[in-house]
Design goal:
200 residues, alpha+beta, Helicase, Ruva Protein, domain 3, Tetrahydropterin Synthase, Chain A, three-stranded antiparallel β-sheet, two-stranded antiparallel ribbon, 17% strand, flat, protein biosynthesis, Transl_elong_EFTs/EF1B_dimer, Elongation factor Ts, UBA-like_sf, elongation factor
Length: 200
């Protein structure tokens, strides 16, 4: 009988592979929770094809404009791919549209955590540290874990790739893009976006 798969195991496998939640969970269940075996299984199933493509140069793509709420919110988004052929692909166009819709709904400030200014990150950390210290006594390593957990939530709120996708909250935007890379067969990069709100 297969052992119960923990959320921590699923999270670890997803971080290591970029696989979706259901794929990761199924692979762990099939391999009795052995991460190395689950990675191998995902590779065999083709779920990890996306990883090999992530270093390829992306010079083609689309700039997409999306207007929401009777002209109250607008999004201008650039998503890159490797070839003009894929840029005209309906799957790719659908992804770009879904990403623009997500940006309109979820209001991210940055594409990825790497873009968040270090000054902002340090300020958030100090606020979280103060919050935790208001309710001691906790060992230093526990305080550190709580602060890191709050920081992860902060990234999830402001970074597009970290946010749960509006059409399927079990999948992050990054996982959605990774799935499309595997399906389409080319590297895809969310380059930049601007979100406009009427009167702001």
């Amino acid at each position: 009988m297969a052992e119960k798969i923990s959320a921590a195991q699923v999270k670890l496998l997803r971080e290591q592979t970029g696989a979706g939640m259901m794929d990761a969970k199924a692979a762990l269940a099939e391999t009795n929770g052995v991460v190395a075996s689950a990675i191998e299984l995902l590779r065999k199933k083709g779920v990890l094809k996306a990883g090999k493509k992530s270093d390829r140069i992306t010079k083609q793509g689309l700039i997409h404009a999306y207007i929401h709420g009777e002209g109250r919110i607008g999004v201008l988004l650039e998503v890159n791919c490797e070839t003009d052929f894929v840029a005209r692909n309906e799957d790719f166009k659908g992804l770009v549209h879904d990403l623009a819709l997500h940006i309109a709904a979820s209001n991210p400030l940055y594409v990825s955590r790497e873009e968040v200014p270090s000054v902002m990150v340090e300020k958030e950390k100090s606020i979280y540290l103060e919050q935790v210290q208001m309710n001691p006594p906790k060992a230093d390593n526990i305080i550190e874990k709580i602060v890191e957990g709050k920081l992860e939530k902060f990234y999830e709120q402001i970074c597009l790739l970290e946010q749960p996708f509006v059409k399927d909250s079990d999948v992050t935007v990054k996982e959605l893009v990774t799935q499309k890379i595997a399906t389409i067969g080319e590297n895809i990069q969310v380059r930049r976006f601007t979100r406009y709100v009427l009167g702001e």
